[in-house]
Amino acid sequence: MKMQRLAKMFLGATLAVSMLAGCTGDNGGAASTDGGNAGSSTTTATSTTSDSGNTDTAPAPANGTKVGVSMPTKDLQRWNQDGANMESQLKQAGYEVELQFAANDVQQQLSQIENMISNGCDVLVIAAIEGSSLGEALDMAKGAGIPVIAYDRLLMNSDAVSYYATFDNYKVGTVQGTYVKDTLDLDNAAGPFNIEFTAGDPGDNNAGYFFNGAYDVLKGYIDSGKLVVVSGQKTFDEVATPTWATETAQSRAENILSSYYADGTNVDVWLCSNDSTALGVENALAANYNGTYPIITGQDCDIQNTKNMIAGKQSMSVFKDTRTLASQVVKMVGQIINGETVDVNDTSTYNNGVITVPSFLCEPVFADADNYKTILIDSGYYTEDQLK
Description:
Elements: H1 3-12, E1 15-17, E2 66-71, H2 77-92, E3 96-101, H3 106-118, E4 123-126, H4 135-143, E5 148-151, E6 163-167, H5 169-184, E7 193-198, H6 205-224, E8 227-228, H7 236-239, H8 246-260, E9 269-272, H9 275-288, E10 295-296, H10 303-310, E11 316-319, H11 322-337, E12 342-344, E13 359-362, E14 365-368, H12 372-377
Parallel strand pairs: 1-12, 2-3, 2-4, 4-5, 5-6, 6-13, 7-8, 7-9, 9-10
Antiparallel strand pairs: 11-14
Helix pairs in contact: 2-11, 3-4, 5-6, 8-9
C-alpha cells in the first residue's frame, strides 16, 4: 500500500469509544526467554484467525502491507512473548512484519524505528524503552504519514502518537493493593502490619499508574497506622527501580533489610510492581531475612515467579495476557488500514504531555497458587512442564 494512500485513509478515520470492558482470548503458547537482539522478519500469511482464537480481526489487506513492531528487549520474558504473539497474529492476519528488539538501548530502538520507516512500513507498533526518547523517529513517522500505535507503554511528548493499546494500568495497581487488603483482612484485623514498596522504572509512564493504583488502595491504612512503612520510603521516587532491573531491586531490598529489619522485625508485605522487581526482593529475602515470610505481589506471571508462587515464595502476580493485547492491536491495525473507525474505550486518561491519546484498555486479572492452573495452564499460556 502506498504511504500517501494510507495517510489519507488514516486521516479520514473517525475515533469512537467502544463500550468493551476488556480484551478476550483463548489460545497461544508462551515464547521462551533468551537475551540479545533479534533480526527482523518479513512474512506474508493469509489466515484472519489469530493465535488467541479471535476471528473478528479486520480482514486481511492486499499483500505488501507492512507493519513494523518495535520491542524493548529480549532480556525479559514478557517482551519475548509480546513480540512473538504480535508477529504471529499479524502474519496470520495477512501482513508483512518487521519485528525488532532493541536490547534496552534507546539509540538502537530509535535507529531500528527509523529503518522501519525507510523500509516502507505502513503502520508502526512501538513498545518504548523510554517513552520520551523517540521524538526524532516519531516526527519522521508523522512526516511520512505513518500511524503509530503505542504498545503497553505510552509514547510521551509527541503529537505523532495515533493510538495507545495497553492494559488498565491503574487497575493493575488496585488489583495488587486489594489483594494485600483482603489477605491481611485490613478492615477487621488489629494490626499493625509492616509493609515496603518496590516500584518500577521512572522512565516508564506505566510505572506511576501501577504504584499509584496500589498505594491509593492502601493509603488509608498507612495514614491510620494499621500499615507501617518501616523504612519510611513511600513515594514513587523513593521506591522506583530504574529499568525494572532485578539486581537493582535486590540491592535496595538488601539495604532495607539490613537497615530496618536486622533486629528481628518482621516485614509482613512487600508490594512489588512487577515480577522482575519481585524476584530481586525474593533473592534479598532468601539471603538476608529470617522473619515471617511476607506477602509479595508481582505482575506478568513470568515463569520463575510463577514457580515461586507455587513454592510459596511469591503470593500473586497480575496476569496481563499478551495474546489478548496483541489481538486488539492487530484489530486496530486492520481498522487503520481499511479506513474504519478504530476501537478505543478511553479518550481522557492518557495525556502524553502534548495530546490525550485515544486508548484501548484491556482488563488485568491475578494469578496465585490457588488459581494458576486455571489462569495459566488451562488457558494454554503455559504447559505444566514449563512450571516444573
